[in-house]
Amino acid sequence: MAAGTTLGSAGLLLPALTDVAQAADLDAASIPRFTRAMPLSPVLRPSLQSSGAAFYRMTMRETTAEIVPGLRTRVRTFNGSFPGPVVRAVSGRPVVIVQTNALDVDTAIHLHGGHVPPESDGAPMDLVPARGGSRAYVYPNQQPHANLWFHDHAHHMESENVFRGLTALYLITDDIERGLNLPSGDQDVPIALRDARFDSDGQFVYVMGDFQQRNVILANGSAWPYFEVEARTYRLRLFNTSNQRFFKIGLSDGSEFTQIGSDGGLLAAPFPTTSLPLSPGERADVVVDFSRYPVGTRLVLSNGQDGPDALTAQLLQFRVVAAKGPDTSTVPDVLRTLPALPPATAFRDVALSMDEGPVAPGTEPQGYINGRVYDPDRVDTVIPYGSTEVWTVTNTNRFVPHNLHIHLVQFRVLERNGRPVVSGPESGLKDTVSLFPGETVKLQATFTGYRGRYLYHCHLIDHAAMGMMATMQIV
């Protein structure tokens, strides 16, 4: 059946690729909100530790989870955990993870934001075979503190595997981060945010590109949960693990919170704000002071991207309870010193686009980088090892948003729509940057550490599966 177009968030036209026979959709408005506690991701323990490395074993397998109250959903997981587990790593200390695939589909596991050798990057054709295949991934952790995450990258399967739950978190710390007196312990909480679509039996409904139908919000794998917080300061590590949905995160009372970090770790200085945009794949570290609220307060983490009356305008609820002890945490005026920007040695233009509107009968919309659909056998960009490049990235579409994720490196955003970025949420180290229709960003990265092939692509994962990916080779 020919694909059509449907109206998405903020008036964006997005393709709906296929129609599928299925049970009727679950009415998202019928799901009770804030009746179940938000689960916390379990911390994965190493199977072996040595003085030089930590070794883990993870098994990808299907299980069921109660995502919507009263219903069991089949999910694809790491170690049977939904939400996925957390690996806590230390900069300079390698981690080795043996991934075994007990699913019925091939996978390729990418550590998003990781500075890793190409053979451990999870390239789309470097598969972990279904039904028992294994692969060892080596993460040297030769990078500063950062909030990273795992997801599948198998060609043409990544979108569905991620949608069905195959994600996990990976937190690297270092002396810089540990030297600060930020909220820690139970007051340091990773939260993975995403959307989903269900049928009336509680099963995921996956149709590539139909983000406008994915109107159930999950926080750590639970639909609209609540989270009890003491009347003190919390560090919330926010991950947008959606396939396509953009969030604009705020507090329902409009009060201020403080962003302290982005994709590649802490910002140079805290950034007070009331609104935080977060596109798919991006991360943000924020500090919220709940001591300013009376015990008993119920406060919602909100999403302003889709409008105040949208089903997706609420993400989760905080319930303020009495603090068990004094809060001695602080957010200093200086968080870190970012590395200096070296002189650029090369300049490139990158155009992101996809088919908008109806396409020819019998065909489906495709995504493009510089006019080309992804070909795993083709190298699109050759980059000399050690070079520092400035990329001017443009979303040439009229209606469809995109973002750009570059493997291997953390980059700096120099300009957005011609305006210099000198402070705020995009002033730190980044690996994913958003572009609404017609927008242009200029970014700078130094390509060092490893030689080999790596991807750059739109991290609206459905768009990547449609072909909006390209290969760079560091030589």
UniProtKB/TrEMBL annotation:
InterPro entries: Cu-oxidase-like_N, Cu-oxidase_2nd, Cu-oxidase_C, Cu-oxidase_fam, Cu_oxidase_CS, Cu_oxidase_Cu_BS, Cupredoxin. Residues 1-23 form the signal peptide. GO terms for molecular function: copper ion binding; oxidoreductase activity. The keyword Oxidoreductase applies. PROSITE patterns: MULTICOPPER_OXIDASE1, MULTICOPPER_OXIDASE2. Residues 61-174, 231-296, 365-473 form the Plastocyanin-like domain. It holds the Pfam family Cu-oxidase. The keyword Metal-binding applies. Keywords: Metal-binding, Oxidoreductase, Signal. Belongs to the multicopper oxidase family. This is FtsP/CotA-like multicopper oxidase with cupredoxin domain. It comes from Kitasatospora cineracea.
